[in-house]
Amino acid sequence: KKNLFWYSFITIEDEINFVLNSIKENMDGKYSVTNFTIVLPSMEKYLPKIAGLFRREGIPLSIRKSEPISENPNVKALISLLKNYSKDRFSWHDLKVWLESLLNLEINIFKNFQDNEIYNLDIIFRKNGILSFTISELDILINKYNNNIVLETIVKLKNELINFRRLTLKRISKIINDTNWYILKNNNILAIKTINNLISEIISGNEKYNLKISEKQLIQEIIYLHTQLEYTPIKSDWGVEIVSIMDSLNLKNQFVYVLGL
């Protein structure tokens, strides 16, 4: 059974002091700092006051704050891959972002390219002033570097891009979903799951309602919508949990203080 109590305060300082004293009283018993959660309506308004006061009292905080998934490097790599999938011409910049990412090491879409192979390709594209290209245009480079040690890498890239073009967006989503993400840390896994859920929902919605939207249009929708999504990184800090209202679903601590209501 859970008890719910409402209190009214004149100032934010009074509200924070009450929470602090309540936590200190309960910590004198069987509870530790990890049994408490404080939900804030505004991180910007409340957190500086709470952090200073709790630090002076020697009470540690574990702050959970949502971050845009678009800022996660692995999500950036995945978006770079989708951008190239949706265009008639491949962007070397976007392709390089993908090839250098951890995701390419784990996802069975491209063969792994070694650092020296990516470096050599980058030099070739720069020397030839190539920012974007088609698969057929790679034949020009193959002929030009026919007797060069980089020939094998260029041919490898061409073959991988041919296979990539044969994939469907649904197949790409399934490959990502079926990947074992043991190499990534928890925060990156959360970000990847969030973006892949978005991709899956857009694909299934298009099929369910028979919208017949092209894959290129679906990708443009994914690229736009992913900038609106956030995820909450997992923090290992030991202390009183601090979360925003947006991140306050499924709280399980014994004591939850919701401020600013």
User: Whole-Å distance between the termini?
Assistant: 23 Å
Structural class: alpha/beta
* Count of separate DSSP helical elements: 11
The gyration radius over C-alpha positions equals: 25 Å
Any low-confidence stretches, pLDDT <50, length ≥5?
A: none
Largest sheet at a glance? 4 strands, parallel
Number of strands: 8
Please give the oligomerization state of what you see.
Answer: single chain
Q: List SSEs in N-to-C order.
A: HEHEEHEHHHEHHHHHEEE
Strand content: 5-15%
- What is the 3D form? elongated
On the 0 to 100 scale, the average pLDDT is 91
Strand order in the largest sheet? 2-7-1-8
What does this protein look like?
The protein is of the alpha/beta class and 261 residues long. The chain has helices at 12-27, 43-56, 73-86, 92-99, 102-106, 115-127, 138-144, 151-166, 169-177, 186-208, 215-225, and strands at residues 36-40, 61-64, 67-68, 90-91, 132-133, 230-231, 240-244, 255-258. The protein has a 4-stranded parallel sheet with strand order 2-7-1-8, covered by helices on one side. Strands 3-6 form a two-stranded antiparallel sheet. It has a two-stranded antiparallel ribbon with strand order 4-5. Helix 7 runs antiparallel to helix 8. It is elongated and about 75 Å long.
Task: Give the SSE map.
Blueprint: H1 12-27, E1 36-40, H2 43-56, E2 61-64, E3 67-68, H3 73-86, E4 90-91, H4 92-99, H5 102-106, H6 115-127, E5 132-133, H7 138-144, H8 151-166, H9 169-177, H10 186-208, H11 215-225, E6 230-231, E7 240-244, E8 255-258
Parallel strand pairs: 1-7, 1-8, 2-7
Antiparallel strand pairs: 3-6, 4-5
Helix pairs in contact: 1-2, 3-4, 3-11, 7-8, 9-10, 10-11
